[in-house]
Amino acid sequence: MDVSIVIPLINEDESLPELCSWIESVVTNNQLSYEVILVDDGSTDDSWAFIERKSRENPNFKGIKFQRNYGKSAALNEGFKAAHGDVVITMDADMQDSPDEIPELRRMIIEDGYDMVSGWKKKRYDNTLTKNLPSKLFNAAARFNSGIQLHDFNCGLKSYKRKVIKSIEVYGEMHRYIPILAKWSGFRKIGEKVVEHRPRKYGVTKFGWQRFVNGFLDLATIMFLGKFGKRPMQFFGLLGTLFFLIGLGSSVYLIAAKFMAEDFSLTNRPSFYIALTTMIIGMQLFLTGFVAELIARNAPERNSYLIETKLGLE
Asked: Does the pTM exceed 0.90?
């Protein structure tokens, strides 16, 4: 199969007929074998009723329905599990992503050899203060921490080799940082394409201000898991040892000063209590690393590694 198109959605019954018709026209004109996987993330309108009708009319359109709203990451993860195309393309259902981008996004994977291609909505029609400015801050932070030079990590319009989406797990609100997940999984040829951002035609945005806070928290989580997920002691143990040694050194110095000068008041000095607190924090961090290491070593996925190929082995 040439392409799988995964579309997460919630309450998009107004836009779905036009979007599906447009996709159908694009893939037919480009003679692509395809499937469209519509993931209904707990809609309360007639979105699922339309998906059922569309699937009967055209079996290439398939649906997954959640019993309740789990979020975009969960919808994408289930869509990725179900995808069979050589190239997997994701897009939003609100008609702000153009299906006309599909052939070129696929070509960049097949012919240019990219592992994934991320869309860049260079010209946006969103509110500058509430969406554009925060997005710029997120993207700058993500570029700095990941080393991936993309302008728009959160663009819903992306294309992937099938191997990429089968090698990653998207959860929480990690859909913003799929390029980072791909990089940590060993896929480093990540490209970018300027794509059209269309003005919203139907409905209203489904994202509130909470996503900005969650975005930074998820970035911190993904950076930590990528570096220390299988070796937490290297992070907590090092930090704990450093704190403990600083506190111990300060305490020894203050105690020695007490013995050398009888008028030196040890217990009246804030530095003494700061040193003790630093030692306690150091021990707690070390123990946290120790417990995390025990959990990691007993986790079912402790020896789960992504292997690109094997020779002479079944």
From this structure: no
